[in-house]
Design a protein that fits this description.
The chain is mainly β. The protein has 2 domains: 241 residues, 6 Propeller (Neuraminidase); 232 residues, Neuraminidase (6 Propeller), CATH 2.120.10. The protein has no helices and 42 strands. A hairpin with a 4-residue loop joins β10 and β11.
């Protein structure tokens, strides 16, 4: 529901709100749900972010920028699509459509896009982006929404150590934008501003531990009118906490601002520090009668109640794969091999597929943002099929390597290693589980395998579900023959996965899980 708010106060220069859509002087929330719908949430209402001229591609990230042209008082919002398209919308409000004022591409080379606020003192929020290798770039605002940013400038290295980066606005009293950064083990760092656009941050200051209890850390600018920025953070169960800024780079008050679990339905908060998950956040299951059921992520580690996919037809005996989205719509794709032909969402992609005994669609393996396909033949050769970014066709296969007949289960969906790259898991016939970190390079899509553990032949089914915990990191589930279902959370600071957590039972009624 609508969020709780504080009294209206005009913020000082340099600390203006970046997403104030109801003109009350405070930033409002912008959120994305599981279906990709974008909604502004103010103190009194929830209103869809209506965009005129948008590309219709699934929006991965939303970056509020405030009034870039310092003219109409309405904020500009930058959206980043799953295939790296960026679009800037002006005059965002709770009434009417926001007009697209600029668009570009090529942002698929970054795994995080955010705004620290105003870096150089011109009262305009600037943009930053981090590459998969950890290089940090700044795009200074121009003040012209039709050409909103100058060319990128490299301003830092080594930022790959953080799994969340949050552009704060000003929290040390100098009127310039600051940043919070969190490591996977929960350590929080504060980067105060210098005012120098080419060297924008001071040395990091340690803020404390335990911040890995939150799945998303969200900048909200100044909510209480004291001139200092606050942050809100969502617990893994969906409860929202508020941290009050001190004006010295620290946070001195903590307050619970929602009912328990109230915000679990949000898949992504605008400006949140995590790497967003897209493409697949779900489990499909087929019973012995051929009926297909859908369980979607609740973002709190749980799956929804099952929904019967009545329109999907009967899948008894079908050779199904549930792949991470091949196209920019952000929805997983059901693959079926029948009479040697591959069908993707009922579209015939051609013949010759009978030579393979395993298919897996873990996500983007070549770095273009759209999901790709792995196929193993009966001799143990693994091949990569890259998709056209619109999902309309597959390109010629690339041989990955031999010896994959060692594994009786190859699966995955999303990033398990905190670098934003798609990774893959594989279990040997003796029950040893290995992680293959993704590289984003089609000629060598995986680094050397990493042993995760033994005893995984305890499970009769293994499924890469994508993110189930709301942090953007890939997770997977494993079912025992007796029907117990366990979740393994990816992106852990040690051993890549957290210890298993039981999340269901009765799954022995299914003869296929995808």
């Amino acid at each position: 529901g609508p969020r709780a708010g504080a009294h209206t106060t005009t913020a000082p220069l340099g600390a203006g709100p970046r997403s104030d859509v109801d003109n009350d002087g405070k930033s409002d929330l912008l959120v994305r749900d599981l279906n990709g719908k974008l909604t502004f949430v103010t103190r009194t209402q929830a209103v869809e972010f209506a965009r005129a001229g948008d590309s219709k591609d699934f929006v991965k990230e939303m970056v509020p920028l405030g009034d870039l042209d310092l003219g109409d008082g309405r904020p500009e919002i930058l959206t980043v699509s799953v295939v790296g398209g960026v679009e800037l919308y002006g005059n965002a409000s709770t009434t009417g459509f926001s007009q697209r004022r600029w668009s570009s591409g090529g942002f698929h080379i970054y795994n995080k896009v955010f705004s620290p606020g105003d870096v150089n003192g011109d009262r305009r929020a600037d943009l930053m982006a981090r590459t998969y290798g950890g290089d940090l770039y700044i795009f200074l605002a121009t003040g012209d929404p039709s050409y909103p940013f100058m060319g990128r400038v490299l301003v830092g290295h080594g930022w790959q150590v953080y799994d969340q980066i949050v552009g704060l606005g000003d929290n040390d009293g100098d009127g310039k934008g600051d940043v919070l950064a969190r490591t996977p083990d929960g350590a929080l760092k504060f980067y105060g501003s210098t005012g120098d656009a080419l060297n924008p941050f001071k040395a990091p200051v340690h803020m404390g531990h335990g911040w890995n209890r939150f799945n998303q850390i969200v900048p909200v600018d100044d909510q209480d009118g004291d001139g200092d920025t606050e942050v809100w953070a969502r617990e893994k169960d969906g409860t929202l906490r508020a941290y009050g800024g001190s004006g010295t780079g620290t946070y001195d008050t903590i307050e619970t601002i929602s009912k328990t679990g109230a915000w679990a339905g949000v898949s992504q908060f605008a400006g949140a520090g995590n790497l967003p998950a897209t493409g697949k956040e779900e489990l499909l299951a087929r019973d012995k009668a051929g009926r297909l059921y859908w369980y979607y992520s609740l973002n709190n580690g749980r799956l929804s109640a099952r929904e019967y996919l009545e329109n999907a037809g009967n899948w008894a005996g079908a050779n199904i794969t549930n792949a991470s989205s091949f196209d920019p719509n952000g929805e997983s794709d059901i693959l079926d091999v029948w009479n040697g032909h591959l069908y993707v969402e009922n579209k015939d992609f051609g013949g010759g597929w009978g030579v393979y005994n395993l298919l897996a669609g873990p996500g983007d393996l070549n770095g273009d943002g759209s999901g790709d396909l792995l196929a193993r033949d009966r001799s143990g050769n693994l091949y990569l099929y890259q998709t056209h970014w619109r999902g309309t066709k597959l390109y010629n296969r690339v041989h990955v390597s031999r010896g994959w007949d060692t594994y009786n289960w190859i699966f995955g969906a999303g990033d398990y290693t905190n670098d934003g790259r798609t990774d893959v898991l594989a279990r040997t016939k003796t029950g040893t589980l290995y992680l293959f970190p993704g590289t984003g390079k089609p000629d060598r899509p995986f680094d050397s395998r990493i042993k995760l553990g033994e005893g995984f032949n305890t499970y009769s089914k293994l499924v890469g579900t994508g993110d189930l915990t709301g942090d953007g990191k890939g997770d997977f589930v494993a079912a025992t023959a007796s029907g117990d279902l366990y979740r393994f959370d990816g992106g852990a600071a040690k051993n890549y996965f957290a210890p298993r957590a039981k999340i269901g039972y009765g799954y022995q009624v299914y003869n296929g899980m995808y």
